[in-house]
Write the structure tokens for this entry.
Amino acid sequence: MESIKIDTEPKIELISDTREVEQIASKLDSMPLVAVDTETEGLDPYKHKVLLFQIGNLEEQFIIDCRKASIEPLRRILEGQKPKVLQNAKFDYKMVKHAFGIDMENMVDTMLIEQVLTSGLSDRRYGLASLSEQYLDVKADKSERQSFINHTGEFNENQLIYARNDLIYTLQVLSHQMKKVSEEGLGHTVKLECLAVGAFGDMEYNGILLDRDKWCSILKEEKVKKDEAREKMDSILSPHSDMDLFGMVSINYDSEEQLKNALAKIGIKVDDTSKLTISRINHPIAQAILDYREHQKVVSSYGEGFLEHINNITGRIHPSFRQIGASSGRTSCTEPNLQNIKADSRFRSCFVAPEGRRLVVADYSGCELRIIAELSDDPVFLGTFRNGGDLHSIVASAIFKTKVSKTENPELRQRAKTINFGLAYGMGSQGLSASLEISEDEARELLDKYFQSYPLVKRYLDKSSDEAIKNRYSTTIGGRKRYYEINDQSDSRTIASIVRQAKNAPIQGTNADMTKLALIWIRNKIKEKKLDACLVNTIHDEIVVECDEKIAEEVGYIVKEYMIKAGEFYLHKVPVDVEYSISGCWEK
DNA sequence: ATCTGTGGCGCG
DNA sequence: AAAGCGCGCCACAGAT
């Protein structure tokens, strides 16, 4: 690895005059690729200022003191087609968007590229310091970053060196990465992820509005129900339990061990206290436990901690998205996680559009099954989607030899749904017998029937896992890879687990690809048509857009149109379908 | 007092 | 010991 000496270069000049910024704009025009970075007072775009704005290539770097000079002369470069490489681009995007009203476009993110290159591999670090060490053999010192927090006054030489080095390291890391990207055939995925940065930046920046009063009143109901369930548990268990000084039952029902002990005292022995195990107990305590659990979970998840995520400046909730949050390519969401809000419409409907605005909520229908149809070439799967039929019903009719539709024998349709999603991803007869509450023999029979009816699905899934084991990676239709750590020491359990992961990875990953492409295109369309609309959330196969009520119909059409286009960019054998609603709140 | 792993469960 | 994939968050338990 080459080592670059840069720390000994002469004094770094700090640009603190807007006229100088105008001059560097023309210099930047002649650079085909530039690196961009910022130093900020902190992490929150709504609270913290941008102190330094750095831009340049390997030959020349410019550091602008944003407290004294405006970067307005750079707007056309930042908003234009020139590629800008950044480490963790979404962060700088949001800071620059808020501070200067500039939406950077055509960003290239070394962090996301690294995640694409190593998806599925363990113990990976994606910070610039790690990447510099890995690719450049230099120890980048990130401790200087701390010095910018709440910084005032002049900048010292070390701070400026730090600010400049980040640009240089980022550019050098990128050129190493791009070699690997082309060797691995990951060009499309890298492009997709980099173009999607703006969409995820926007969703975080825009946030979503929560009707706090309504939320709290639901929470109050939940607390009451939780207490009722606990009293019920107490009444059953207390005659057999230890009392504390006040004669109260002193069982902590949140403790698995204490719960097991309490159950043992009334003659119920269980190995675990999972929902499934509890639900099989033939005793009134079972329902009380399940009720308690459900309400306890809600109260703890959506209580004080959740409400703290309301930003006191915008009054909205601004979650953090990890754009590549799962090794499949899916996004994950934290602080708070807005991808696992109870589907129970009481809670979702508390996420609202402000006065005069609407939410467009759109999702792909049967997305993963369509992807299975595309990849497996199964004639029934393909035919069903081409004819607009209901696959779960058709599968149910085939394996249960009974007429099934959404209205006839709906319980069989529900079972087929379980089978479709379970077996497709490697569920065994044991798992199936558990989730359908049937004997293992019956489950085995069902499983055989399923794969007899859809031999191409079985062949496809087997091929998926065979190839994954052979290649040590899976690929999606878009070419995204998920790598597996397999070696000669891998035991059979590890291999079995990888076999199941590999059956799922191309399907879940292709879904992620198409949703991300849809986000890119929808955002572009909104900007192009200057619509009063913004992305506010995405949940794997669903996209939520907030807009002025007067254009809600138009936005609905656009969202649907581009989701379908994005889907059909990857799927050619099956039509893609999107359902959407326009409402004052988040509901399907 | 703070960290880590685990069981349990919400969503797709 | 555990066998369908992918996540994040809560409380607990045990450790530091």
User: Anything to note?
Assistant: The two ends of chain A are 53 Å apart (CA to CA). Chain A is about 50% helix and 10% strand. Residues 256, 272-275, 293-294, 297-298, 301, 330, 337, 339-343, 363, 367-368, 508, 511, 539-542 of chain A lie near DNA strand B (CB under 10 Å from a C1'). The longest strand of chain A covers residues 357-364.
